[in-house]
Design a protein that fits this description.
CATH superfamily of one domain in chain B: Cell division protein FtsQ/DivIB
Largest sheet of chain B: 9 strands, mixed
Helix content of chain A: 25-40%
Strand order of the largest sheet of chain B: 8-7-6-9-10-11-12-13-14
CATH class of one domain in chain A: Alpha Beta
CATH architecture of one domain in chain A: 2-Layer Sandwich
CATH class of one domain in chain B: Alpha Beta
CATH topology of one domain in chain B: Rossmann fold
Largest interface: A-B, 16 and 16 residues
Structural class of chain A: alpha+beta
Oligomer: heterodimer
Radius of gyration of chain B: 45 Å
Structural class of chain B: alpha/beta
Helix content of chain B: 25-40%
Strand content of chain B: 15-25%
Shape of chain B: elongated
Number of helices of chain A: 14
CATH architecture of one domain in chain B: 3-Layer(aba) Sandwich
Chain lengths: 443, 296
């Protein structure tokens, strides 16, 4: 645990240094595409207009370079072929650097795979002094009893979600307040350690340094949920190529995240198998003619399937759109059913507002919102990422919600467990802080 | 059966940059490297090429020689040549002296004439108060001379010099009679006190017909010498006031017409007269003092 603590602190310092230098890259490693955005931070004063507030850090940066490339060597949001992924990352980074005309050294990455698991942690301490200090916050965070997250897993996010002082709950910042008992609830997201190691290694092989990591379910929630949805409770379903991330937000904190290891690529492979066409053709048919609701009109709409076999009969095949929908719909339903299960397991029913936002590349299937509202509940909408400065039009679609969310995450990161002070008890025995504490306690 | 005009399968090139291409692009985007390559490298190449070329002394000499030759050719063009010197505003003797002093071997390029030095050389001549040198078009060097005007004669042990109003020497004079119009002064340091001498002469205008000259005594004060060897000894401070007082006395009582050897005005509140011996005896006799047989 301390290892990761140090690693995360080192990444935080690196991120701070990169922001000081003003340029940082965002890398969204997805199953179907790898997106690289280059951000320039030049402070809020660069935009002049006083009516524009800091807006949670959105006004402090500008996208100066953007590039997308087809992902290679990634399955289920995890790196499966390192060299291929490395090439794809290099392609994206090089194109973005060329557009921005600057060199970037620091990268914040997000990924959707690695089997994220959520844990709710609770901790409670008696305050030594009646006033809550930074040290008390650190102590209560370290008093949370960490569950057994399993062999080879690591903590990706550990965010204090709530503080309670005596009987008052829902405190955002308890410092300076008076009470006797301080309690906290923390959300901990663990992921498979080897996946992190692979991504770290891959980014290092591209001569870049990793300055931060985030779960793509979390960051796409940041970018595609509007403020009241984040406040009142909502779930963001990021339907990617290889996996669909689920994140639940309430009171502007993520309280649950999970991923279904199915996505748009599975729909494509179903089409490919069903129609006996290559994956590229299947992908084209899916994006051009795909849907989930068949009507009478669709029986008459014939789609050229084609083929390059040389056999006339095979190359002149035609299918109706209804048939295509018949292939796609079961898989989409399966994904949504799986999502429904995860949401039920997380206790999504008990939230005050049960808004569900669908985003990600696979959410662009026509009619998906109608299908989703049957399975997930009435309040479903399609989400697109927030607009940020300088983002090219091509990168404003639903497929870029995790990349944009990562920009917001970079500009305005949420306090994580390792951003707080280390409690004095955890310091080495000869530490100066310990001496100071001894003096404070005894005088 | 495959169609005969089937398109050839396109060879898909890997869109990913090679590791070295990627690194080179990143290196090129590094600001320091870029500045070094865009400014530093051309500057280094230029400097090194120039350095290598000039490293050979023969080439350096050739370049220097070429420059000097072009310069020479330009300066020796006929429009820059001075062929004639015209001296304006000087008497013929002085003009000759100026020409001799110029010592220019004409024709000469005007670039080769150091006008400042030539002007200083001409102004070294005593008779020249001021010289202006202009190179006129047509190859004429015009020397405009302002001559010194003699105002005093200064008799020294070696001869008579003419001085201007400031006391600067103008020329020597063979005989006093050559310039009878000028007053004469004598004595050591008289030339440096020439302005004062002129002021004294102006103040002594009423007795000017009788005045023979002024004598500087001890480079400190003036004696006025009149005919009949009469002397007026002036103080070293305020001599003009003293002489004006004496003239007032003279006009009131014809003081200088009497048989007096000298009037001593050196102490201003007590002028002293020195009588001639005969006049002294006359005075004593008139006062009833017998001076027969006495030398005094």
């Amino acid at each position: 645990m301390t290892d990761l603590y140090q690693a995360q602190r080192a990444m935080r310092n690196m991120r701070r240094a990169a922001m000081q230098r003003g340029v940082i890259a965002i890398l969204d490693i997805g199953t179907s595409k790898i997106a690289c955005l280059i951000l320039r931070f030049d402070g809020a004063q660069g935009f002049g207009d006083e009516t524009v507030g800091p807006m949670a850090g959105q006004s402090s940066f500008r996208v100066i370079g953007a590039a997308t490339t087809r992902s290679r060597g990634v399955r289920f949001g995890e790196i499966s072929v390192m060299a291929e992924t490395e090439r794809a990352v290099r392609t994206a980074v090089q194109a973005a650097q060329k557009m921005a005309n600057v060199r970037v050294d620091h990268v914040i990455a997000c990924f959707s795979g690695a089997e994220p698991r959520s844990y709710g942690l609770a901790g409670e301490i008696e305050l030594e002094d009646s006033v809550v200090t930074e040290q008390d916050v650190a102590r209560v965070l370290s008093a949370c009893d960490v569950p057994d997250i399993g062999q080879g897993r690591e903590v990706l996010h550990a965010q204090p979600v709530n503080f309670a002082l005596d009987h008052r709950s829902g405190l955002g910042d308890p410092r300076g307040q008076i009470g006797n008992r301080l309690a906290t609830d923390m959300h901990l997201l663990s992921i498979d350690g080897t996946v992190v190691q692979n991504i770290l290694h891959c980014i290092q092989r591209c001569d870049l340094e990793l300055a931060g990591m985030a779960s793509s379910a979390y960051v796409s929630g940041i970018s595609s949920l509007v403020e009241d949805e984040q406040e009142l409770g909502a779930a963001c379903i990021d339907m990617g190529g290889g996996s669909s991330g689920i994140s639940i937000f309430i009171k502007k904190h993520m309280i649950y995240a999970d991923a279904v290891r199915m996505g748009g690529d599975h729909v494509t492979s179903d089409i490919s198998k069903g129609l006996m066409v290559p994956m590229a053709v299947a992908e084209r048919i899916k994006t051009k003619h795909g849907g989930v609701h068949a009507t009478g009109m669709d029986d008459r709409e014939m789609i050229e399937v084609g083929g390059d076999s040389g056999d006339w009969e095979k190359d002149r095949r035609q299918i109706s759109r209804t048939e295509l929908i018949g292939i796609m719909r079961p898989r989409v339903e399966e994904i949504l059913e799986e999502v429904r299960e995860r949401l039920d397991a997380a206790g999504f029913d008990s939230l005050p507002s049960q808004q569900i936002v669908l985003t990600g590349g696979a959410s662009q299937i026509p009619g998906l919102d109608g299908l989703a509202s049957r399975i997930l509940g009435q309040r479903v909408r399609l989400g697109r990422p927030l607009r940020v400065q300088g983002l090219p039009q091509a990168a404003t679609g639903a497929a870029f919600s995790s990349a944009v969310g990562l920009c917001l995450f970079a500009a305005h990161p949420q306090d994580e467990w390792w951003d707080f002070e280390i409690p004095t008890e955890r310091y080495p025995a000869r530490s100066l802080k310990r001496v100071v504490k001894w003096f404070k306690d005894n005088w | 059966m495959r169609p005969l005009n089937a398109r050839r399968p396109i060879l898909r090139v890997d869109p990913a940059p090679t590791k070295w291409a990627y690194r080179m692009q990143r290196l090129w985007l590094t600001p320091v490297f870029r500045a070094l390559l865009r400014v530093g490298l051309p500057a280094f190449v230029l400097v090194s090429v120039a350095g290598l070329f000039l490293a050979d002394p023969a080439r350096r000499d050739a370049i220097a020689g070429g420059i000097a030759e072009v310069r020479e050719q330009f300066q020796n063009r006929p429009e820059f040549m001075v062929r004639l010197v015209s001296v304006v505003g000087a008497s013929p003797e002085l003009a000759d002296a100026v020409r001799a002093r110029l010592a220019l071997t004409l024709p000469l390029s005007s670039f080769d004439i150091d006008l400042t030095a030539v002007r200083a050389r001409i102004q070294d001549l005593d008779a020249v108060a001021r010289a202006d040198l202009i190179v006129r078009s047509g190859g004429v060097l015009e020397v405009a001379i302002t001559e010194r005007v003699p105002a005093l004669l200064w008799r020294t042990e070696t001869g008579i010099e003419m001085l201007d109003a400031t006391g600067h020497r103008v020329a020597s004079l063979a005989a006093r009679t050559d310039r009878p119009d000028l007053p004469i002064i004598a004595g050591e340091g008289a030339d440096s006190a020439a302005p004062e001498a002129l002021a004294l002469l102006a103040a002594a205008a009423p007795i000017l017909p009788r005045l023979r000259g002024l004598v500087r005594v001890g480079d400190r004060r003036w004696d006025v010498v009149l005919d009949r060897n009469q002397r007026i000894l002036l103080p070293d401070e305020k001599p003009i006031a003293a002489i004006e007082r004496l003239i007032a006395l003279h006009q009131a009582g014809d003081l200088l017409g009497r048989d007096i050897l000298a009037v001593d005005l050196r102490t201003d509140h007590r002028p002293v007269l020195r009588l001639a011996p005969f006049a002294l005896n006359q005075l004593r006799q008139s006062m009833g003092i017998d001076t027969s047989g006495s030398q005094l």
